[in-house]
Amino acid sequence: MPNTASAKKRLRQNVKKQLQNTIIKTRIKTEVKKSLAAGEIGQAFSTIDRAAAKGVIHKNAAARRKSRLAKKLAAA
Length: 76
Prior knowledge:
By secondary structure, the protein is mainly α.
């Protein structure tokens, strides 16, 4: 448990950020599933790019996800 005021504040910030990151990652998965079902990748690409820009996922991870998604849709 944190003792100093700054450590307590940092803990509160970390909890909020962790929740936000989880929401964004879940949104990525949802958009990918939707785009696979609909055959349209624009919204999924946008969501992945926004997550990478915010630092939720690494830019290389974003590129890898986009590549795999495009490959799946091309095969379908």
